[in-house]
Each structure stands twice: as C-alpha cells, then as structure tokens.
C-alpha cells in the first residue's frame, strides 16, 4: 500500500511564501505524474500544477508565474513552492500521484493567506 503525506501548510500574510512537500512511501511501483490540487470552502477541487517523471510541468492559470512545482524522483517527493500568495489561494492543498495503474491522494494540508 502506498501513502502520500503532505507537509508545509500553514498561515501566511498576503505576498508571502510557503513550500509544500508530498512524500510517497510504501509499495511504490513506478510513480509517473505527480500533482497538486486545492479545494477552498464551498468550491470544487481545482487543479493547481502537475509534473511528469521527466520533469515536464504544467500550471493552472490562477497560479502561473507564482507557483513552481518540482520533484525528487529518488525520494518520491513532489514540492510546490508558492510565492506572492493571495487570500484567494486559501484552501486545502492535496497532492496526487499516478503509481502504476493507481491514482493516489494525500490527506491534504491547509494553507491560509490573510490580507
């Protein structure tokens, strides 16, 4: 069984930065794409960013130029560097990963940005 564990969430003032981490552990087959989603209260889950095993990245329009996704394949860990945070970035952030035929989700980490 594979688990994804996120860390790095917290509270920050607008304009500040946070770095999220998500580490996979357990019976890892071959993790391919990893990514981040977020869900604000009363809203649907929103895709934030994704990265392939080879390092190709994509971002949602609302975070382009402010967020950077990266990964360490040796550690089966994906990161999300979030800069110039805005109050509308407040949400629970979830990482996910494609491990062989399975889509895995972490438990989520809260990010709160105050104005």
Tally of individual helices: 0
Oligomeric category: single chain
Quantity of strands, as a count: 11
Poorly predicted runs: none
How would you describe this protein?
The structure is a single chain. The chain is mostly beta strands. It is 0% helix and 59% strand. The protein has strands spanning 2-7, 10-13, 18-26, 31-39, 46-51, 57-59, 67-72, 77-82, 91-99, 102-105, 109-114. The model has no long low-confidence stretch (mean pLDDT 94).
Summarize, please.
With 115 residues, the protein is an all-beta fold.
Secondary structure blueprint with pairings:
Blueprint: E1 2-7, E2 10-13, E3 18-26, E4 31-39, E5 46-51, E6 57-59, E7 67-72, E8 77-82, E9 91-99, E10 102-105, E11 109-114
Parallel strand pairs: 2-11
Antiparallel strand pairs: 1-3, 3-8, 4-5, 4-9, 5-6, 7-8, 9-10, 9-11
Give the tags.
115 residues; globular; 59% strand; 11 strands; four-stranded antiparallel β-sheet; mainly beta; seven-stranded mixed β-sheet
């Amino acid at each position: 069984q594979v688990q994804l564990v996120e860390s790095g969430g917290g509270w920050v003032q607008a304009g500040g930065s946070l770095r999220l981490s998500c580490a996979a552990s357990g019976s890892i087959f071959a993790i391919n794409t990893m990514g981040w989603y977020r869900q604000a209260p009363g809203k649907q889950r929103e895709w934030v960013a994704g990265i392939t095993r080879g390092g190709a990245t994509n971002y949602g329009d609302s975070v382009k130029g402010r967020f950077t996704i990266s990964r360490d394949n040796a550690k089966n860990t994906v990161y999300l560097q979030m800069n110039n945070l805005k109050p509308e970035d407040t949400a629970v952030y979830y990482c996910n990963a494609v491990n062989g035929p399975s889509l895995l989700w972490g438990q989520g980490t809260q990010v709160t940005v105050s104005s």
